[in-house]
Amino acid sequence: MRFVDIKEQLNNESGLRVIDSILNVGFLAAIIIDKDTHEILYQNKKSIEYFGNIAGKLCHEALCTSEQPCSGCMLSAMTGNVAIYDCYMKTLNKRVRWMYSDISWFDGRNAVYAKLVELGEEDITSDAKWKYLKDMDQDRRDTDSLTHIPNNNKFFKNAEEIIKKDPSSDFAVVLFDIDRFKTINDIYGMTKGDEVLLHIARVLKDSFGFEDNYGRMHSDLFAYIIPYQKKGEIIKQIEKLRKKISRNDFDFDINTSFGIYLVEDKQVPINLMCDRALMAVKTIKGDILKFCAFFNEQYRADMLKANEIEKDMQASLLNGDFKMYLQPKFRLSDDKMVGAEALCRWVHPKKGIIPPMDFIPLFEKNGFILKLDEYMWEEACRTLRRWIDMGVEPIPLSVNISRYHIKHNDLEAIFTRLINRYNISSSLLTLELTESLFLDNPEELNRVMSGLQKMGFRLEVDDFGAGFSSLNMIRNITVDTIKMDKDFLDNEISSDKGKIVVNHTIDMAKDLNLQVVAEGVETKEHVEFLKNSRCDVAQGYYFAKPMPLDEFDKLLQ
């Protein structure tokens, strides 16, 4: 028989009376389901005979006796085309065939028009029923419970099959996540976060349809696999996907970061391919100018190296393998040593000295810098106490403060405890803060700094001139000293104009009653220029390298 198409009528007319007259023609059971909420909006008389009065109920509860949406739910998969769905219905104990098509409900809601176009003549056999239920159970295990797209295990299986079916093609495994997804959950709530994940899943369905080449790995991490001939094709496809994701009704932006692994060895397990794509994603986190990166073997080497370092860091802290080295500071007017900076050196029992650049950036990422810095602060206080007990006149020591302490620690309480424990004057400690820290919540930073200054600590801006300095910052910061960055010194004094810039910077700082320290002083030319520029203190290899405590002690005697 000819099926009645109600799309035009629903789009152009309103009222249940009109819908009744259309959907009760013929002998087909028909229902209309809200695509977003799964609520049954309407059922005709034939469907009432089969299922009873189910209008207003959720379709998966009424038709499938399931508390959750069905695995592979057709409502989520519909993209405007007519679709056929064969299944076994427990409520009828028969094999059935549904025909679905997208419609617009008369009140504007997106809906699906479902017609029961074929009904099995005989009850399904027990064996077939058992197989069906077993398959349904497997589908549930393979489907992500929130988004109803393949989960990570199903994606691994599907991707493996895709590669096997087309061994001559080149494939790329792409992983992506949502930038600052935790912030979305924290500010807008978990429900809104779930809506974002559902939006991503809909975009993937719309982009790839029924290809089964995508899935949700966990949290906000998604993956897909595609064939390609040129790398540019992958980038274009990512750009299209990002545009679709960005087109939404949320009150905030959804930005995504992509990692790409080009499948060269097809024997590598899919989960390892995904791990490598994820490594690529991590390399662009925090870089607003990049949205995707290809995996490079160097990433893997760096990751293994980082894992080795992280594996040893806790034990090395307990065993005292992190050593405090001191680099002297000299007053330029008379070349007298007037202080020193405490620097961390990792003396590993098996690997020897590990360079700071190999572990400090990593510790800043994983948070271990909090423990390491506090350890160094205590080592500085212990050293000052030892000098006093030896009858040696102590010199002030500079210790580093990272941005993580401003956010996570009560610095006043920590330093109060330290100076009380070792019975030392707060004037013997200079607290160094990197210049970039002043861009991150300056009001909170100034509050903390003012409290520390009132306790008697001297505050110093490290790396001044490295890229963020400004007249406004110099005017507003509550510090005692600025330390000019080595690169600033090298770059500026290489030209006459640059020398003028440095001279005026020093003059301006001194007019503001700030002491000026120059670090990275390595040549006689540096020293002469700084003396002529009225710089107060210098630190660098020209005078002395960082040294262990026993060597430094000899300089004090």
Structure description:
Helices cover 45% and strands 23% of the residues. With 557 residues, it is an alpha/beta fold. It folds into three domains: 7-139, Beta-Lactamase (2-Layer Sandwich); 143-295, Alpha-Beta Plaits (2-Layer Sandwich), CATH 3.30.70.270; 370-546, Alpha-Beta Barrel (TIM Barrel). Helix 17 (442-454) links the parallel strand 15 (429-434) and strand 16 (458-464). The longest helix is centred in the middle third of the chain and has 23 residues, at 297-319. Residues 1-5 have low confidence and may be disordered.
Instruction: Report the principal-axis shape.
Output: elongated
Give me the count of strands. 19
Query: Total number of helical segments?
Result: 22
* Percent in helix: 40-55%
Which blocks of ≥5 consecutive residues have pLDDT under 50? 1-5
Rounded to the nearest angstrom, the distance between the terminal CA atoms is 107 Å
Tell me the CATH topology of the largest domain.
Answer: TIM Barrel
Q: What is the percentage of strand-forming residues?
A: 15-25%
SS content category: alpha/beta
Q: Please tell me how large the radius of gyration is.
A: 34 Å
User: What is the overall pLDDT average?
Assistant: 84
Strand order of the largest sheet: 11-12-14-15-16-17-18-19
Protein topology:
Layout: H1 7-12, H2 16-23, E1 29-34, E2 40-43, H3 45-51, H4 59-64, H5 74-77, E3 83-89, E4 94-104, E5 110-119, H6 126-142, H7 152-165, E6 170-178, H8 181-188, H9 190-208, E7 214-218, E8 221-228, H10 231-246, E9 256-263, H11 270-282, E10 292-294, H12 297-319, E11 322-331, E12 336-348, E13 352-354, H13 356-366, H14 369-390, E14 397-401, H15 403-408, H16 411-422, E15 429-434, H17 442-454, E16 458-464, H18 471-476, E17 481-484, H19 486-492, H20 496-511, E18 515-519, H21 524-532, E19 537-539, H22 549-556
Parallel strand pairs: 9-10, 12-14, 14-15, 15-16, 16-17, 17-18, 18-19
Antiparallel strand pairs: 1-2, 1-5, 3-4, 4-5, 6-8, 6-9, 7-8, 11-12, 11-19, 12-13
